[in-house]
Amino acid sequence: MHLPPANFTDKKKLLHMMASESEFKVLSWNIRGLKTRLKEKAALLAIFRKYDVVLLQETHIGEDDKCKITEAFGGEYDIETLKDGEFKEQLNRERKTMYLTFFSSSSRGVAVLINKPHTCLEAFCEGGIYAWVHAEIGSQKYTFVSVYYHSDDDHLICDLMFRQ
Q1: Among candidate residues 116, 121, 124, the one with its CA nearest the CA of residue 145
Q2: Number of domains in the chain
Q3: CATH no. for residue 115?
Q4: 77: in domain
């Protein structure tokens, strides 16, 4: 991407320039409880639709909440649940897909929403702390990682770097 000369201390201007030249938009959002925002579903979907990929943190989704999420978002997204130590491989997706981890209804949990047709090359997660989705969109390969970081997890980033 070619950027014209600019004052790079003006971060707002730089981000605007980058967004206007880019066709691929990503949102990372600490949603602080996806389930508690279901009454705002229409507004959430309107926000999600503006981006090609949405990374959510602190979804606060437990195993018992899966049906609520599927009911709320299943019309818009295929829901692909990720479980610790389980790899999902080579899934061709024509519809939007929500890759979702489960941990607890009151803490952790992350999601990766891909709003373009794609092939999921592999996906996995660990303990509601992160979800890792390696996908091909068009002819380009991407790796998306949504990470829940808590100050008690000071070793998390190092652990992630050494895993793969």
Answers
A1: 124
A2: 1
A3: 3.60.10.10
A4: yes
**What is the token pair recorded at 139?**
């002819």
Q: Give the end-to-end CA distance of the chain in Å, rounded to a whole number.
A: 28
With respect to residue 126, please indicate whether it lies within any of the assigned structural domains. Answer: yes
In a domain, 127, yes or no: yes
- Domain range holding 123? 25-163
- Better pLDDT: 35 or 117: 117
Would you state the torsion angle of the CA atoms of residues 35, 37, 42, 44, taken in this order, to the nearest 10 degrees? -90
* Percentage with pLDDT > 90 across the chain: 52
pLDDT value of residue 64: 86
Helices (H) and strands (E) in the chain, counts: 4, 9
The verdict on residue 115 lying in a domain is yes
Contacts of 135 (CB under 8 A, 6+ apart): 114, 118, 119, 120, 121, 141, 142, 143, 144
Q: What is the pLDDT of residue 87?
A: 78
Characterise 127 by phi-psi region: left (phi > 0), alpha (psi -120 to 50), beta (else): left
